[in-house]
TrEMBL record:
InterPro entries from the UniProt entry: ComA-like_MBL, Competence_DNA_uptake, Metallo-B-lactamas, RibonucZ/Hydroxyglut_hydro
Residues in coiled coil: none
The species this protein was found in: Candidatus Zambryskibacteria bacterium RIFCSPHIGHO2_02_FULL_43_37
Superkingdom, taxonomy of origin: Bacteria
Residues in Metallo-beta-lactamase domain copies: 39-219
Lineage: Bacteria, Candidatus Zambryskiibacteriota
Protein name (record): Metallo-beta-lactamase domain-containing protein
Length: 262
């Protein structure tokens, strides 16, 4: 084989490997990543058939490097992007994401409404729990989009910067229905507002009763997050507390029965 044929064969093989990595991934487990983006939120969901969801994007371009670690090489499409609220530590990084990635469904405080459900067709389902009303004119944190993710027996609750005011609304929605408060009972809670005392009341934490509580915050942040009061509440309800401050990016993996913290 002369050198030209060798180079051509090498390029063809490399091309095959690249596109196999993008399109040839078979069904797997559900994976949820809480990216370490400093003082902010960015959560990435990869469903069993590789439908991809990004909830918030942190305050800068760091989210791009985190996405590059978990998305297939050459993949430039995210199925669903949710901006929980417009504060910079949740939304600014989404500008960089929009520059590099094409997106399918885009939701924010104005377009998200309770009851909207995205069924990915592989057992994974994302449901909007809040807002249930027009929140224009509200404090941005109070109006945070709250969503629940289910896959088999595994469940996650994403709360943005939802405050105790928002939590109280959620606690009273459908409270008289048989499954009313059960909709808040999940395995993994993303603690609201980076572990601030303005979120995660004892009543809310008791109803959610998470096995794990994730706190996304920056090391030595000026807000003092997470607050000691919140840590005590989460400890009281038996949650294992994990923070991006101590652990960096946090990954959960589940087959729908067994939930693993990786």
């Amino acid at each position: 084989m002369d050198w030209k044929k060798y180079v051509l064969a090498t390029l063809v093989l490399a091309n095959i490997l690249v596109w196999t990595s993008v399109y040839g991934q078979g069904p797997g487990n559900l994976k949820v990543y809480f990216f370490d983006v400093g003082q902010g939120d960015a959560i990435f969901i990869d469903t069993p058939t590789h439908k991809q969801v990004l909830i918030d994007g942190g305050r800068n371009r760091k989210v791009l490097s985190e996405l590059g670690k978990v998305m297939a090489f050459g993949d430039r499409y995210i199925d669903v992007v949710i901006e929980t609220h417009p504060d910079a530590d949740h939304s600014a990084g989404l500008v960089a994401v929009a520059e590099r990635y094409r997106t399918g469904i885009n939701l924010d405080q104005n377009s998200a409404r309770r009851g909207q459900t995205i069924d990915f067709g592989d057992g994974a389902k994302l449901t909007i729990l809040f807002p249930d009303r027009d929140i224009s004119g509200w404090d941005t944190n109070d109006g945070s989009v709250v969503a629940r993710l289910d896959y088999g027996e595994a469940s996650f609750l994403f709360t943005g910067d939802a405050t105790i005011k928002t939590e109280n609304i959620l606690l009273h929605l459908d409270k008289d229905l048989p499954a009313g408060r059960q909709v808040l009972d999940v395995d993994v809670l993303k603690a609201g507002h980076h572990g601030s005392r303005t979120s995660t009341s004892l009543t809310f934490a008791e109803v959610v009763s998470p096995e794990y509580a994730v706190i996304s915050a920056g090391k030595d942040n000026t807000y003092g997050h997470p607050h000691k009061e919140v840590l005590k509440i989460l400890e009281r309800v038996g949650a294992k507390i994990i923070s991006t401050i101590d652990s960096g990016t946090i990954e959960f993996d589940t087959d729908g029965t067994i939930l693993r913290l990786k």
